[in-house]
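Hi R.,

Here's the input for the zinc ion complex you asked about:
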Amino acid sequence: MPNKTLSRFTTSICTAIGVGFLFTACAHKPNPWRTVREPLKQKAQVYGTVNAGCLVGAESLIEMPTLEGENAQGSNLPKFEVMRPSRNRFFAHPSLVAYVTALSEKVYRKTKKYLLIGDLAQPRGGPMGDRGAPTAHSSHQTGLDVDVWFESSKYRLALEERENRRARDLVNEDHESMSSYWNLKYQSMVLKTAANFETVDRIFVNPAIKRELCIHSRKSGVRADRENAWLAKVRPWWGHKDHFHVRLKCPLGNAECVPVGDPIPAGDGCDETLNWWFSDEAKQLIAERAATPPEFKMPELPAACEQVLPLLTHH
Ligand SMILES: [Zn+2]
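And here is the predicted structure with zinc ion in place:
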């Protein structure tokens, strides 16, 4: 695939309008990936990376009747609830839909609770950000990322609650101590179950949560790498106090999918790389990021994404 990028489309549209009298209209062209309502119906294929990519053949995690609040009591429904459905970010590669379904089934069998599922991807993936869109992620672009709330629900949620419920932080404002919502037994069970799927590449949680898991692992005397392989996949990252983020590996048969991130180092990650997150340097960076969240910048997408979003070309 030639190495051209989508950015030439955005600039050419902008220049064309710019020479006319509508210059202000071009000053900011909204990100079109945010407004596509439907997936492109093809065999599922991921293009690019989670941070600069797109997706065809996405599946919806929820059926439309559920979205409208019908069937809410159906016993055959999957054992999860999709939160903030109005965002239209419940699309994913079929392997991720299968993962979320299977994970929530396992958790339900152990706890009789429904997992609460946050953002997956837009119908055709692509960047979610835009100017003035502070809830955007930089990843989640290829249907291989999912946010799962740390809290779950004993009952099915009505649409209104799925839209409006606020997630609770497990870690306090000091970024070190655990809040009253932290429940070691439940969270370690869920994270271990989530990480133990072969298809999972890694899971991001707040560093304080990883540290609690490490302390517990040491106390319970687990040493064998084999038994702790799941813990290695759970990685400390910015934020992630109220949800964990699961990233799947590039699915088989998706030759255009490009993995990101260094390979996970040997060991369980309960080491000096984790301790760094509690250093003065890290605390300074956390404060800076909170004060000035990173600006959205349109990534350079693979050329194949031009066909995935024909909207850009129909001018
Ligand atoms: Zn996420």
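One thing worth noting: The chain has one domain: 31-313.

Cheers,
M.
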